[in-house]
Amino acid sequence: VQLVESGGGLAQAGGSLRLSCATSGFIFGDYAIGWFRQAPGGERKGVACINNYDGTIAYAVSAKGRFTISRDSAKRMVYLQMDSLKPEDTAVYHCAADSAGCFPRGTYDYWGQGTQVTVSS
Fold it and tell me: Considering only Cβ atoms within 10 Å of each terminal Cβ, which end of the chain, N or C, has fewer?
């Protein structure tokens, strides 16, 4: 199983970035894919999730209205479009997969290594 994030980098406040998560090694349609972020010294927090089984989507309050999660099932890709970026969005962003949906009891089954997003003011 592999999840590989890309698309991170440096953006100015108010700008946009699009993160990509390339997946392999599991049945894409049976898993939920979530985006998480962890700022320096902070806890890992969920940002957005899409359940490939039924298409349901969930966002953290901090992401609603600014971030959009989407998928390309044929390519086994999940994207996170981030608009109106704020300095507080600075973090390492990870994508993760879980067979129990967006809100499993424990941690997600599989994780990517992460991509750094830095937003300057």
Answer: C
**Closest by alpha carbon to 30, among 88, 90, 110?**
110
Phi, psi for residue 21 in degrees, rounded to 5: -130, 110
- What's the sign of the alpha-carbon dihedral 78, 64, 115, 17? positive
Tell which residue, 69, 67, 77, 90, has the closest CA to residue 13.
90
Render pLDDT for 3-49 as a digit per residue (tens, 0 to 9).
Answer: 999 999 999 999 999 999 999 999 999 999 999 999 999 999 999 99
Say if residues 94 and 112 touch (Cβ distance below 8 Å).
Answer: yes
Q: How far is CA 9 from CA 16, 17, 89, 104, in A?
A: 10, 8, 12, 30
Is residue 85 within 8 A of residue 16, CB to CB? The reply is yes
